[in-house]
Structure formats: C-alpha cells, structure tokens
Amino acid sequence: MMRLSACMLGCVLALTSVLAFAEDALVDRAKVSVSAAPVSSQALVKALAPQCMRQSDYDIYLSGIHTGTMSRTETWHGETAVVTSHSKASILGIGTEYRQRAELSWSTTTHEWLTDKFHQQVSGFRARDLQANFSANGRESRVNVDGDIEYYHSSSIALRDVDTLAIQMRHLLLQGRQQFALIRQASDAIEPYQYYVQAKQTKTIAPWGNLSLIPVEQTGAEDVTYYFAPELDYQLIQARYHGIVLQGLIALNHYHSTCQ
C-alpha cells in the first residue's frame, strides 16, 4: 500500500503523463530562432513568452472509488518545458496533497527528453519535500529529501522524474518503438522499468466518445498500464496501477492545448 501511494501520486499521477507525460507532436517543439543581429526588447519578451501550453485534468480512483483529482500543465518554450502537477486525494483515509514542478529539455547530444531538475512536495500520507538536480545527460542526480542528500548514478539510461518519464514515453511511442527501458528517480532509489506496447483497442471515453487507444504495459517496481490516444495528440487518457491489494486508476476528464 505504501507503493500504491508512491505510484498514484508519482508515476501514475502525472505520468502523468504522464503522468506523464510534449513533445514532437510531442515533438511539436516550436523553435525560437535567434538572429545574429541585436535582439530588440520586444523580440526578447516574445521569445521568453510561453509558446504553447497543454492542460490535462484527471480523476483518481482506488479500487473503483473516486478518491481525488489531479491537474497537469505543460508550458513549452521551444525545446524546453516546465511541467506542473497538483493533486488532492484520500490515501487510506488520509487526505494527501501532491505538488510537483519539473524542468526538462531536449538533449542534442543523446536526442531525448531529459529532466534538468524538479521539486516535489507531498503533505499527508508519505509527506516529504524533495528537490532533485540532474547532470551528465541525466545519468547523475543529487536528491535532497527533507534535508537528507543522496547521490545516484546510471551508467547508460537517463534518470528522470515522473513527468519527463511520461514525455519520453510518448516520444518513443511516436517513433514507433514497441519496447523500451526507462528509469525513474524516486525519493530514495532509482527504479528501472520495462515498457511493452500492446495492440490498439477502442474504448468509449467521455466526453470524447469512441477513441482508439494504444496500451503500454510497464513492469518493474510498479506494474502499470498506460493508454495513449492518437486522436487526442497522443495524450495519456488512462493509467491503471495493478496492485496486490488495491487497484488504482487515473482517467482524463478534460484536455486543452494551444500547441500545434
């Protein structure tokens, strides 16, 4: 049950993206062109203004019971982004609030989305204040949890927060990958996951009606199935947490985008 809260207010919550969860259509990264000539103050303000935003709202369920909500906003500036997530839920009868702000960018060296840093605050169940910074193309991290500092390293796969993990998942899905490996930076460990893309299926999802969904199964520290909708810009529509005792679900109820 401790794992459930970590996933629902971390992996599944936003990964939300997902959860995750930017991108090209996801990588519809609008690039800011910079001229060699002096930049006017008006042009500078325009370059610093948000180029586009994506807003997703989710309902949270535990074993079929509605226990909370989550909102997630991606603000894109060319090949960098800030993702903010906020959720309120009842976990084991305890009111729990989750906030996270993650900064990420596209690596021209390794050609992937990488977390630069993130700040996560959880009150109620498993309360903590976590700040993490990443270096060496995401292969090293410094994590501060309530004043306790730990360092982590990965030899080959980048370490990511849950939001960048969701964005990278979507990027790989758009590339047509059928299986891949990613690593999540948790509060007290790094968690490797394997992902397997399944055959498309059709579901009726309010308020959009019938949607074609691509399921992606995650195995590792937590077993989760993510459902992405090509008809909605490959957004994360649902994520199901397969727990031993409880089953978790987040379901999209509203989506708005100014990204092209």
Automatic annotation (TrEMBL):
Annotated signal peptide: 1-22
Lineage: Bacteria, Pseudomonadati, Pseudomonadota, Gammaproteobacteria, Alteromonadales
Keywords: Signal
Full protein name: DUF3108 domain-containing protein
